[in-house]
Amino acid sequence: MKTRPAKRSGRGGAAAQSQAPSGPSLADFRPLGEGRNPNKHTPQGLGQLEAAMDRQGYVAPMTAAADGSILDGNARLEKAATKFPGVAPLVVAHDGTRPVIMIRTDIASADDPLARDIIVAANRIAEVDLDYDLGVLRDFAADGLDLTPYEFSVETMGELVAGVDAPELASGGKGDYEQMTFTLHRDQAISVRDAVDKAKDAGHAYSALNENSNGNALAAVCEAYRG
């Protein structure tokens, strides 16, 4: 017979609300905000996260900077604010030199049905709640962040870094291709990237003349302006 994790009363509900706040509150912490979080999240992922909190209580710790900005756990902060109103969070101050382990005293072992629910849900939510904001990643790269350690796919890197998929020019000559370099203000660069992305979405990423999707999209934008 299959055993389903039982719903336990008080997880994110009335019992949790009865705890009196002490020390920092969830309101003292804030999400990264638009344009700073490279994960846009997904409706499926957020829905699964909310349902998991109903079944399991709070599971995965968040990580915040000293000023209260949430670095890891923006979706968890959002859902925790509604699932645990008035509950003071457990806050551990550390400098990253020691591992932090959170022990669930209500779960005896990994064989507990709730433990197995947590094991599966933690991995599944991480899988379905990922939707990269390429614009944010581009901005991070422009500010000097090396994206190499994250091992993005070749396709994703091609979208992230302008010119990654550009054809090599023959030594000593340009042939039929020309590489162009522009100096833009940060705000102008954002506008150009947005326009190129929209052109790609409209089907202008590919051309019989050029293998560079960014170049094709930019050329389409220019052609539209030329009229």
Radius of gyration equals 24 Å
DSSP summary, beta strand count: 2
Low-confidence stretches: 13-21, 163-167
> In order across it, which strands form the biggest sheet?
1-2
Which structural class should the secondary elements be placed in? mainly alpha
| Basic shape | elongated
Q: How would you spell out the order of helices and strands?
A: HHEEHHHHHH
Give the biggest sheet: 2 strands, antiparallel
Strand content: under 5%
Query: Helical segment tally?
Result: 8
Query: In the residues, how many domains can be counted?
Result: 2
Question: What do the pLDDT scores average to?
Answer: 83
State the helical fraction: 40-55%
Keywords:
two-stranded antiparallel ribbon; mainly alpha; single chain; 8 helices
